[in-house]
Specification:
alpha/beta, six-stranded mixed β-sheet, 15 helices, 14% strand
Length: 293
């Protein structure tokens, strides 16, 4: 396979998928979700591979969707930009495809390990949390900031990993947490000093790779079936529909128009600062102004 947004290689019994857009902090483009799935398929078809490691090139694991052009451009498609008219089922079909591509890491017959440094935020957290095991650098950050406005995590893995209360703590605020806290809360398997991240993940991957493929597959299918029984598919369906609604609510449309007028980074700064997001009648009033802010 030739990939545009990831790199794939094998190292003995370990397959390595590298998110490979370092100039954009590995932000998710139109190619990346499908290429992740194709790489997972390639690893599953290779009888030499026992385990898959997912990592990011450069300074971060993944900074989320590369939304700058969709938020700032008038001609961006309604399904991702927040513009009207909006077809919620076309939106669902698009985002469900991406969600299923990310979840190929969860559905993979071979175990998957995410190695997180820098940031795994917004859609990047969806990729990391779709892996079976996550190992983070202690100073890395993970979170879903679009929970404040313009998004809902479509994989919905937060609640299945954290439980209801801590999932609410993060998704009610859009706060990020560091690797040390993520490990203490049980969101990820382990957090280590950044200088030890490579060796720790390599040692874990080698340990897993020493187990026969059929044993790994049986353990994974058994554990995943329990999560499926808890309602994973139905929860992801609801989350994916809500993700589209979030981009087309009065607040979501205000966020897009603010980004169009003042730049995506300015809109994100407002979103993440803790300043109240204009809502309801206030957002509608702002949208009626010539200058949406």
């Amino acid at each position: 396979m030739t990939y545009a947004s990831i790199a794939y290689r094998t190292d003995g019994r370990i397959a390595r998928i590298t998110l490979d857009r370092p100039e954009r902090l590995n932000a998710i483009d139109d190619h990346m979700p499908r290429e992740i799935r194709l790489a997972v398929d390639e690893a599953n078809a290779d009888p030499a591979v026992h385990v898959i490691v997912v990592e990011g090139a450069g300074r971060a694991f993944c900074a989320g969707y590369d939304l700058k052009r969709y938020a700032e451009r008038v001609d961006a498609g309604a399904q991702v930009s927040g513009r009207m008219p909006w077809d919620p089922m076309a939106d669902y079909r698009l985002m469900r495809r991406n969600t299923d591509d990310f979840m190929s890491l969860w559905r993979s017959y071979k175990p998957t390990i995410a190695k997180v440094h820098g940031y795994a935020v917004a859609g990047g957290s969806d990729i990391a949390l779709s892996c079976d095991l996550v190992v983070m650098a202690e100073d890395a950050r993970i979170g879903y900031m679009p929970a404040r406005v313009w998004g809902c995590p479509t994989t919905a893995m937060w609640v299945f990993r954290l439980g209801a209360e801590r999932a609410k703590r993060l998704l009610f605020t859009g706060d990020t947490i560091d690797g040390r806290t993520a490990a203490e809360w049980g969101l990820v398997a382990e957090a280590v000093a950044a200088r030890d991240l490579d060796t720790t993940v390599d040692a874990l991957a080698e340990r897993v790779a020493g187990v026969p493929r059929n044993q790994l597959m049986m353990q994974k299918l058994m554990i995943n079936s329990a999560v499926d029984a808890m309602g994973l598919h139905a929860t992801q369906t609801l989350a994916t529909v809500f993700d589209g609604i979030a981009r087309h609510s009065p607040e979501g449309v205000w966020f897009q128009q603010h980004a169009e007028a003042h730049g995506f980074h300015d809109a994100v700064e407002w979103r993440d600062s803790g300043r109240p997001i204009p809502d309801g009648d206030e957002a509608r009033a702002l949208l009626r102004d010539d200058d949406p802010v």
